[in-house]
UniProtKB/TrEMBL annotation:
Ranges for domain EngC GTPase: 87-255
UniProt name for this protein: Small ribosomal subunit biogenesis GTPase RsgA
InterPro entries: G_CP_dom, NA-bd_OB-fold, P-loop_NTPase, Ribosome_biogen_GTPase_RsgA, RNA-binding_domain_S1_IF1, RsgA_GTPase_dom
Record-level GO BP terms: ribosomal small subunit biogenesis
Subunit structure: Monomer. Associates with 30S ribosomal subunit, binds 16S rRNA.
PANTHER family the UniProt entry points to: SMALL RIBOSOMAL SUBUNIT BIOGENESIS GTPASE RSGA, SMALL RIBOSOMAL SUBUNIT BIOGENESIS GTPASE RSGA 1, MITOCHONDRIAL-RELATED
Family under the similarity heading: Belongs to the TRAFAC class YlqF/YawG GTPase family. RsgA subfamily.
NCBIfam families (alphabetical): ribosome small subunit-dependent GTPase A
């Protein structure tokens, strides 16, 4: 029978089967055929075929993996191979914060590039927006303006951007409407409040939330493995209508997002505002958009068609790919 993978580590996976039984399953033969080698062969959201255990109905074996609609992944530096985070997504929810932990737009730019490469629709969610509003009254107006400018740049590129707060409830109704009847994965650095957002959307779901390191402003890893969670949306977010659902894959907090299967010379193709100018430089596809004369991309930056902020981010990420030295 078919089933959907809810969670798993090593060779033990929780699978929600079509007979409404959730089984703990191993991989039959311990090998699943995939198009390439992964750090983990199966991810939450995968659809698999399960052979139930004849002696214990709560156990089974995964026999085959159904063809995936899409996958979201990153390069696992320690394991030296790609790590699957989620499969078969409608949305990739990229959660960031204006503060606590600090706003890191290059992390989001990396994840956006990976989403473009994988063909997944990303949504940028800036949680803890109450902290951004505080910046306007406590002498940090310039910092607020920089954050708002970067969010607006993403919006101008056609990305959906939500400014919300799990603490105050701001924007949560719009967020719940977006997620309803969809399968979405939450991705972000530790401490951005992914679990808090889930707790607000479904008050029967109580996920552990972590505190921030005072020294580094970083969050602790409260989610240790990706898990698919079925939410019954809070009635306060659905205009009192009961029983509305959303499916969320809560992924572990990522401190350093490293791109997978994207070469430095190809990165520009996954910055959507660069795409119209690629191949139109004097040196065509051989242009690296750095110091070459007649570069159409740099001309677009000078003309304000491509923002300086995104061009700088692209340069930094390209250099990271070339050197293999990644920052937070």
């Amino acid at each position: 029978m078919k089933g959907t993978v809810i969670a798993g580590t090593n060779n033990l996976f929780t699978v929600e089967c079509e007979d409404d039984v959730t089984r703990n399953c191993t991989i039959k033969g311990k090998v699943i055929k995939t198009e390439k080698e992964y750090y983990n062969p199966i991810a939450p959201g995968d659809v698999v075929e399960v052979e139930p255990d004849e002696l214990n109905d709560e156990k089974g074996q995964i026999v085959t993996l159904e063809k995936r609609r899409n996958t979201f992944l990153r390069w696992n530096v320690k394991g030296r191979c790609p790590q699957l985070l989620a499969s078969n997504l409608d949305y990739l929810i990229l959660v960031c914060t204006p503060d606590e932990p600090p706003f890191r737009p290059r992390f989001t730019d990396r994840a956006l590039a990976q989403a473009e490469h994988q063909g997944i629709t990303p949504v940028i969610v800036c949680n803890k927006w109450d902290l951004a509003l505080e910046m306007q009254t406590d002498g940090r107006e310039e910092q607020f303006e920089e954050i708002e400018k970067r969010l607006s740049i993403w919006e101008d590129l056609g990305y959906k951007v939500l400014r919300i707060s799990a603490k105050t409830g701001e924007g949560m109704q719009e967020f719940a409407e977006l997620l309803e009847d969809k399968l979405s994965a939450f991705v972000g650095q530790s401490g951005v409040g992914k679990s808090s957002l889930i707790n607000v959307m479904d008050n029967t779901c109580v996920l552990r939330t972590g505190s921030l390191s005072k020294k580094y402003g970083r969050g602790s890893h409260t989610t240790t493995k990706g898990t698919l969670i079925h939410l019954t949306l809070n009635e306060t977010l659905t205009e009192g209508i009961q029983g509305r659902k959303a499916n969320i894959i809560d992924t572990p907090g990522i401190r350093r997002f490293v791109l997978d299967d994207i070469e430095a010379d190809d990165l520009a193709m996954y910055f959507r505002e660069f795409e119209p100018f690629i191949g139109k430089c004097k040196f065509g596809m051989n242009c690296r958009h750095n110091t070459e004369p007649g570069c159409a991309v740099r001309k677009a930056v000078e003309d304000g068609v491509i923002s300086q902020e995104r061009f700088d981010s692209w340069q930094r990420i390209s250099e990271e790919i070339r050197t293999g030295s990644w920052s937070d």
